Prior knowledge:
- By secondary structure, this protein is mainly α.
- The chain has a domain at 4-43.
- It has helices at 4-16, 24-37, 39-43, 51-72.
- It is elongated.
Amino acid sequence: MLSAVALGKLMKxxxxxxxxxxxxxxxxxxxxxxxxxxxxxxxxKLFFNDVGTRMQFLEGEIALKMMQWATEExxxxxxxxxxxxxxxxxxxxxxxGC
Length: 98
């Protein structure tokens, strides 16, 4: 669970951000709703512990492997945020080492 100090800092920062003003009650309500609807989020402590950063790194590594594979196979591949589109009729085989 999030420490009281860390939770207090997050709520204070949310209140200072004028682009999307959010009060303490709103923040607590959203966090509570997520944790009650997805209990594994709280159980595995997925928030506020850098898991997201590690997942972004892993996603980047997968994208790099896809681009390397496409280059080696001489297949046009366009990297778009969170997507790697290919021809729709193309049959893909598993990438070695994945």
